[in-house]
Fold this sequence. Notes:
With 221 residues, the chain is α+β, with helices and mostly antiparallel strands. 16% of the residues lie in helices and 38% in strands. It has one domain (5-12, 22-191): Beta Barrel (Porin), CATH 2.40.160. It has 3 helices and 12 strands, in the order αββββββββββββαα. α2 packs across α3 (193-200).
Amino acid sequence: MDVSLSNLSQGEDTAKPESSKLEFDFSWTKFSSFINVPGSSSNPLYSIGFKTMKSQLTFKTSDGTIFGTGYLPGVSIDTNCSIHGKEIKLRAQKRFSFQYEYISNVFLEGEDGEGKGQMMTWVCDTGLKTWDYVCLDSRQMPVARFKANIWALKKVGWFDLLGQVAENEEMRDEVLVTGITLFYLTTLRTASLPSFFGAVFAGPRKEGRGKNKLGDGGKED
């Protein structure tokens, strides 16, 4: 089911405390990406490296511990992540648009948060300069936003972590790993001919168990 970013923004106050924002920067000298609190001069909270031979992103904490990986397949439009040793399958919901679903390991159903993992959705709106991503929970409520300037050489973009995600480290880790993996996968899909044919020959896209309360703005593939 298609989710429109324009519908998400209607009537919603997105102003959040500064502490909920994280910068996403790139260093050409180290050929790595970094995530940190805006204006901080300390070591980055996270660093992201790329293993070319494995087409794999590695996510490290400030002390160098690897806590997550993201895979960038050459052909398939679906991908996998690993966060704190737990696998996540990111599955494209449409072959020629950027909407992905996955079952969370830390966002759980039920008021007590002890139910099964929620079906989370990442939605992306790609423009000529900026790409806007929104992560939604199973109720289609935003839990994080990511805005990236695809032409930026250093300061690539920023994350806005909403609600409890700003305080919960496990939720933050999952949002950052899945979001950045999809950012690089989006880049690959827009520039790679094999990825285009991967979308052409991808199997039928089936609607996930998350329900869209914002209305269906698109057609099924």
